[in-house]
Amino acid sequence: MKDIKVLGSGCPTCQKTADLVKAEADRLGVAITLEKITDYAAIAGYGIAATPGVVIDGKVVHAGGLPKAADVDGWLRG
Amino acid sequence: MSTCCSKEAAPAITASCCGEAATVVACGCGTADAASPGVSPARWLIATALGAALWIAIYPQLEPFAEWLVALTPVDRQSQLGDALAFVLYDLPKVMMLLVAIVFATGFLRSYFSVENTRRLLAGKREGIGNVAAATLGVATPFCSCSAVPLFLGFVSAGVPLGVTFSFLIAAPMVNEVALGLLFALVGWQVALTYLAFGLSIAVLSGLILGKLRLEGWLQPWVRDVRMGITALPDHRLTLADRLEAGWSSVKEIVAKVWLWVALGIGVGALIHGYVPTELLIAIMGKDAWWSVPAAVVIGIPMYAGASTILPIIEALIAKGAALGTVLAFMMAVIALSLPEMIILKKVLTVKLIAVFVGIVGLGILAVGYLFNLLFV
């Protein structure tokens, strides 16, 4: 079970990022818990200055812009 | 910065970037598509070269082609309708082709920059040199206003002075790459260059003034207590093919979103071109109407439209004899300051601070409008 957090204010790109992560996890058959963090102070706590951000099992793997599907696959498999 | 993707900002006003409808804005908000991994770099190079060659071959043919099309219709070329029609048939493909080229180049070049690197670069800088660096990086860094608040927190907590942060936040929308490219192609390089220089100057000076005012106390109270975490993002080495792909992704994303807005801008431009009496326009927006510069700024500030919508309108206004400074002041006010952006910034800035921010930038735009009118006769 991978614990995934998508950081962002709730903008459309953040939503797309969350959808992408979920779709790729379903496709690969990886079990995940997906949580969206929208609180700015909490986002700052992860140390990123660009959103959306992606955190997997407590580790920041992405900040700023929609990630590529290929990258998401890599994080889910890793 | 582009005004975009904020939930709080009413979609009707924003009509913007990362979301549904949209104005221009090469914002970094989504420069990626399901990429097929392992496309060979050579293929990207060849495709780009072919695309560029095709572009160069087609572009000069647009005007004769438009004239030929107008001649096919029963409309008299010399009539008002003929004028408007020719404007649409020539400008629509022209602006779209320019947009593709500009967005591609911007997407490619911006892949060399990131918010995280910019923050690191600015963290150690003093005011002065820091403001210049921030303004320049504000133009180059891919960034959209959905990231404005995290960016603000990230900068301030990394020790970037408040005034330097403002220089970045002002320059990002003020010097818009699409506006710059279209001005260059539609109006002339002198005007484009002056716009770049003046836009950067406003960002540097406004940031310096805001820094000197020591307004740290006017941030929202919680901002001072934010503790920024420390994180090291995995190092992402981009190949040339990745960067070309980034350019292409932004073309696909942005052009698909803005073509309708471009068409709208060209439609308005065509109406002005064909139907607005020249004398009337000169009376309202000509050099002698001194009050038109402040009026343009005041009307432009709450409005938000992307550069690709506003530029065809500007082209038509200038062709009709409107004063360049007045028109550019309007453009800068529309794209640099907008209501949705202020609503987003209200999360971190108090209303007092936003008012000072808007006031200083607005005065800067006003000054630029008058200066332009003096410089370009």
UniProtKB/TrEMBL annotation, chain A:
Disulfide bonds join C11-C14. Keywords: Disulfide bond, Redox-active center. InterPro entries: Thioredoxin-like_fold, Thioredoxin-like_sf, THIRX-like_proc. It comes from the Bacteria. The active site is at C11, C14. Pfam families: Thioredoxin_3 (PF13192). Residues 3-76 form the Thioredoxin-like fold domain. This is Thioredoxin family protein. It comes from Pleomorphomonas diazotrophica. The lineage of its organism: Bacteria, Pseudomonadati, Pseudomonadota, Alphaproteobacteria, Hyphomicrobiales.
From TrEMBL, chain B:
InterPro entries: DUF318, UPF0718_permease. Coiled coil: none annotated. It comes from the Bacteria. It is found in: Cell membrane. The chain crosses the membrane at residues 44-62, 95-113, 162-186, 193-211, 258-277, 289-311, 317-339, 351-372. The keyword Protein biosynthesis does not apply. Keywords: Cell membrane, Membrane, Transmembrane, Transmembrane helix. It is a multi-pass membrane protein. One of its GO terms (cellular component) is plasma membrane. Belongs to the UPF0718 family. PANTHER family: PERMEASE RV2963-RELATED. This is Permease. It comes from Pleomorphomonas diazotrophica. The lineage of its organism: Bacteria, Pseudomonadati, Pseudomonadota, Alphaproteobacteria, Hyphomicrobiales.
